[in-house]
Model the fold of this input.
Amino acid sequence: MYFLAFQWNSLEVAKLLVSSLTPILVIAIGLIINRNLKRLEFLQWKNQRVIEKRLSVFDELAPSLNDLLCYFTYVGCWKELKPVEVVKLKRQIDRIVHVNAPLFSPDFVSNYNNFINQCYSMYSGWGQDAKLRTLSQRRREATGANWDDNWNQCFSDINDCSDPATVKSSYIALMTCLSKELGVGLNEGNITSGHIPANLK
Done:
């Protein structure tokens, strides 16, 4: 009789424990879910802020990169750009890229450096500006009487000039990488870069 009473009491105690633990478990699970939702919300907010900043960098950078492409492949606005302006442009876009490099992958910075190295010859001497890795002859012809002989020092040696097709392909690689970094559905397969003239030499 005592044993049956003890069993009954143990069963009642177990039921009581289960019924009192259930709300505690529900609250604990609710807190865990809430914490995870807040963490997810924070990650989404952080990713959104990074994408917004990357888009801001894109807005600032893309027109200058396109100007470089035009200048070194003789398309679009290349005749409107003076050699000294193109030399100065490197410092401006270098600053934008390197200040914002932590927001992008190493792959983007690598593609950027590859494109810039196709456009400019660096380290030509202490205090010397980067040199333009492009032929000056056609530019001189296109500019005519407005050519300033001081611009000649802006250009690298004729043997150090980049092939416009290589400049174009490095630009496409850079912009493809940048569109992936933005992650906002840009069509990376639709990066236009104009047609390089066939009679450059």
In short: Residues 42 and 48 are 10 Å apart (CA to CA). The longest helix spans residues 2-73. Strands lie at 120-121, 131-132.
